[in-house]
Amino acid sequence: MIPRVENFDKLKADYQLYVNELKSSAFAGDVEDRYEARLLCATDNSVYQLLPQCVIFPKTASDIQTALSLASKKCYKSIVFAPRGGGTGTNGQSLTHGIMIDCSRYMKGVSELNPQLREVTVESGVIKDELNDLLREHRLFFSPELSTSNRATIGGMISNDAAGQGSNVYGRTSNHVKSVSMVLADGSLETFKEVSGDELKSCLSREGFVGDIYRKCYRILKDNNARVKEVFPKLNRFMTGYDLDHAYDASTDTLNLARLICGAEGTLGVVTSITLDLTPMPEFRALLVIKYDSFDSALRHAMPLIRAGALSVETVDSKVLNLAKKDPVWYSVREYIQEVEGFDIQGVNIVEFAGADAKAEQSKMQSLYEDILKQTQKEGKERGGIIGAQITDSAAGIAAVYGMRKKAVGLLGSAASKEKLVAFTEDTVVPPEHLADYILEFRALLDSMGVDYGMFGHVDVGLMHVRPALDLTKEEDKQKLITISNEVVKLIDKYKGQMWGEHGRGYRSCFGEIYFKDLYPVAREIKAVFDMDNRLNPGKICVPLGMEGSLVALDSVMRGDLDRQIPISIRENFENAMNCNGNGQCFSYQQSSLMCPSYRYTKDHVRSPKGYAGLMREWLRLMAKKGININAMELETLTRTPNPVHFARRVYNTICDKDDFNKAYYENIKTCVACKSCKTQCPAHVNVADLNSRFLAMYYDRYLRPSMDLVALHAEVLLPLMSRYPKLFNPILKSSLNAYLVKKIFKFVDLPLFSSVTLHRACQMHNIALLDTDGALNSKADVVIVTDPFTASYEVDGLVEFALFLQKVGYSVVMLKPYVNGKLRVVRGDRRGFINFAAKQASRLQRLSDASMTLVGFDPALTICYRDEYKELLGSRRGDFTVYLPEEFLEAGLKEGPLHDFIARHKDRLKALSTTEDFGKTWYLFAHCTEQALLPRAVLMWQQAMSAFGLTLLPIPVSCCGMAGMHGHMAHNQDESYSVWQQGWKKELDKRDFDACLVTGFSCRSQVLRMEGKAARHPVYVLYDLVEKVE
Question: What molecular function does GO assign, one term (predicted)?
Fold first, then answer.
């Protein structure tokens, strides 16, 4: 039995007093001092880990003013702050030992949009893609591009002065900032923008703290302007933290303190809102994807591509490509990056042409394309390593290619080894003409240390993301990180570059003096002007002039240091959790994103794959500190025979245990719908459903299960029995008294009614054999429909129509009676019970498979369970049988066999029917989220199947419907279930003819019926109706 964990890190006394007073103040946002909330914010996408004392989520700028003003009290002088955006930083910029101010939850206002002036004002928590989706109807966009644009906030972009693809033309974030509103260290709110002439004089004459800021900064910048021009390198990715070069223009005597704030990483104040300059969307966009036989060739080709007039040139190496090929993202992109026969692609340049003059851009691209094709015909060095090229000019193709490129950041963290490709010296920048030579020496350095790596980046501006592969749980690899960092500094100096091109300084602030040279005291003076007490993100950028203090150290505590406290055997057994690299893909704001419905509902970062993985890692670490061998404990849980003494201990623990991290962990995972989308959508493939199931198994070994599990764990046994008597049980289910008692006792709501005709009776009526395993074996049928207790109890019509459809097209079909699949047991953490039932079912299905019978399931979630959870938990005991999804079976059948022959015989009749009123419409596919995630080609398979019958099927990009098995029927999940439904499916269904909407998942159809009061149809229903009319 796992022990209680009560001695986890508590708040320091002064912070506890501050937090208590803040909670009772005018602060209207959330104050999170839960250990798990602090734990989530202890990491970002860097290698570092630092536990904050508290995380606050302001709702307005005045909330931030309240927080900072309160801290001005003498008793709170030790309190420090750091702002946080999307938590995607790769250098620990927002990590703090103090109070973290996270604006991403509430500060998402967009105002003062003026399409004519091409400007908009946004709050700091607005996500970049969210803003651009809003601007699209005006043919405008906020142009600085990021790989993390679906979760990066504008406030975070300001703090880093972020940039990415296209910056050679579009510039950095600071190039598009008209003004910045910011809460200063004293709690006052001020807006900074470009000022000159009388307006500058007015600012310089202001009283108080703000006036001092203007006067001192004006003097500092003006006095040092000439030296700044000498020291700061003339690069597209100029130096930030602080941008002394662009904050003052001597030629016009113009002061722009907003330029200092961009790239300041929250060390000068807390940004609340920003007025942005917007860019017109290009009228023409296309990509030229060029392939090379070496990465060096791709780099050396950059300058000719820039001279050809490209908007941007992005480079990807073979490491990234090979990782992408193992990820579902490849299904969307492989058509646009086709293999070259006889060659191994070692590098790719993604060259974009875009602009307002479509004809001119098209001409430039076509000319370059023709030149490259000619070059591929040359031999040896004259070929320049180019092996092929292809043009992609469709919106879908461009999105797919850049989708793969954006996912590269996370993919590099998913390498299947203990050494992970990690970020630390990975946005260095040199003049583009020197990039190839610089990277050659960088690679030589890594090769000399025996360190593998992956690379991708922006060759047009001389920036390459280099991710060395290190196992930071090893002290020797941590020392390699330090050595590589120091050696790279020397290389950058040799090639006249700088250290931080777009990802900020953070824990690399220690190198600031090297690049600022004699201007470093000037930067310190700027810091002192805004934050003389060093309370805003201390340790980053620089220490205020005149104050003692130190910067965060390059060898500070890393995630690997804490992971090292977990024994190797346990880390290997729970590799799923250890693989999370903090990339934050699970924080995507997009409603159509398969990840993560729990996070999108709660906006609580803890309730996300990253959060759940972090909880598991910390839980393992705390258990290890107590000397607990979790591997042995898990095995004991799976093999222990229930006994009264153990049960009595669980009763006692349930009643008496109070302060326990196990309970905090449990409360947070209750909102997880176990959709398993993270298993494929997460770049590191963190399988949260499995992690949570494993934890629950051990949690319920210490505590009693809730009453709902009396129903959930036995549903697959009870439902087939109860569904035999619908006339008895349906009136009971309809009664308000039953609904009250079920909710009160078992915590379930809205339980569906059983099919009015039982499966047994329906099969008799339609002459379909419903058989046990032995009967199915003796039947010699072509196809065995593997039913499940849910559809067999609630959707008899669907199973029958599926069987009749298969019979109509020429197959001999039988139904296997509904045996226990076990999916619910594994979701609820009853892994021992699951293994017991799954082993029996696997044995049955293996016997049928050995008899060369084709097995086809109907419900996606339960069918996929046979290839997913069965494989994970049964191992070799599972066997090698396959249960096909309907679309997989149809795809195979279209190639040969009865289905192929049926369509060939009736093609004219099918063509005629497909134009009738009943079938000639556009059909819309709402696919089950698990089906989309674990079978990426599912949607395409359904489209191809329907097309073969002459029907048009349009997939609708939706994620979870909010039901997720029995999750949506649990009383405590009602708000989440309804919210997730409203955010996604509801909006999409309302746009369309309901009768044309086809839904593949049983739980999804149950949710539709519950929410809309109408029964949704499965695609097979339409196919059955169609073939019924053929003959």
Answer: (R)-2-hydroxyglutarate dehydrogenase activity
